[in-house]
Design a protein that fits this description.
Layout: H1 2-12, E1 19-27, E2 38-43, E3 61-62, E4 67-68, E5 71-75, E6 79-83, E7 90-96, E8 99-106, E9 111-115, E10 120-126, E11 133-139, E12 144-146, E13 152-159, E14 161-168, E15 178-185, E16 190-196
Parallel strand pairs: 1-16, 5-11
Antiparallel strand pairs: 1-13, 2-12, 2-14, 3-4, 6-9, 7-8, 7-10, 10-11, 14-15
């Protein structure tokens, strides 16, 4: 009887999640690293439940007459803060399909915010400073990151099995500035991919 109870308990116990790590390096046609490329992975099986949280803040700062960071990844539904650390006023706007909005004139040490309810790429500008441009990539997967100066990144804990890997960059020569590739994620361990893209 005890054996039967133990067997039943084993069947009811949740099985450990099978997840691997994906290392990506993105280079251009000349083999040079491509920094600030946004990598997203969508497993063919269901995504993990629960809210998506990234280790960086949902903040797009204005500093030195520029958006900082130049590209920000946020989960869909996130409210993004736009603090102004410049001595001049800014007027942030976007005409992008996923989010059309304006944050009218606000000065140093002031902040405005906006909630992004649709996935996609949001191009930002400033009505006062034409040289300012930035991007917010709104995603619906927790498996997302940007490439660093060497063009690489590593995303851990990705659900094992078939998946789709998407690369987005503002200068990528493709529809919507993105390309997608099939990906096999190991149930444990690491898979590495070197991907060459064409930039404008």
């Amino acid at each position: 009887m005890k054996v039967a109870h133990l067997f039943a308990a084993a069947l009811l116990a949740p099985s450990p999640a099978l997840a691997g790590s994906v290392s990506i390096r993105v280079v251009d046609a000349n083999g040079r690293p491509v920094p600030d490329a946004v990598i997203t992975i969508h497993p063919a099986s269901k995504l993990p439940t629960g809210p998506i949280r990234f280790p960086w803040p949902n903040t797009m700062m204005q500093k030195n007459i520029a958006f900082n960071p130049g590209t920000l990844i946020v989960p869909v539904g996130a409210s993004v803060a736009f603090p102004n650390e410049d001595r001049v006023r800014h007027h942030v706007y976007s005409f992008s399909k996923p989010a059309r909005f304006e944050l009218k004139l606000f000065g140093k040490d002031e902040s405005r915010s906006y909630t992004f309810t649709s996935t996609g790429t949001v191009a930002l500008g400033c009505n006062i400073h034409d040289s300012m441009s930035g991007f917010i990539r709104v995603v619906d997967t927790p498996f997302a990151d940007k490439t660093g100066a060497a063009g690489d990144t590593r995303i851990s804990g990705v659900t094992g099995g078939k998946a789709t890997l998407t690369i987005w960059h503002p200068r990528l020569k493709a529809k919507l500035n993105e390309v997608a590739f099939p990906l096999d994620v190991p149930s444990s361990g690491d898979v590495a991919k070197l991907i060459t893209v064409t930039l404008r």
